[in-house]
Predict the 3D structure of the following.
Amino acid sequence: MKFVEINLFGVYVAPMSLLMVAAWLTTLALRRAAGRFGLLQYVWHPALFLFATYMIVLSSMVLVIAH
């Protein structure tokens, strides 16, 4: 698949920015699930863990769509 700009209400937006928002929403859902089950209390640095989770989700989305 080609990454082409998307016309969003007259503004051309890079597809990467939409993927970043989708990855953020997915990471937010994962964070809520981890918080609900108390998994974040076992992580040494929760902010670093959440950032790493975000990067993994974003990379996975890009790889799936680019393939």
User: Anything to note?
Assistant: Residues 15-36 form the longest helix (22 residues).
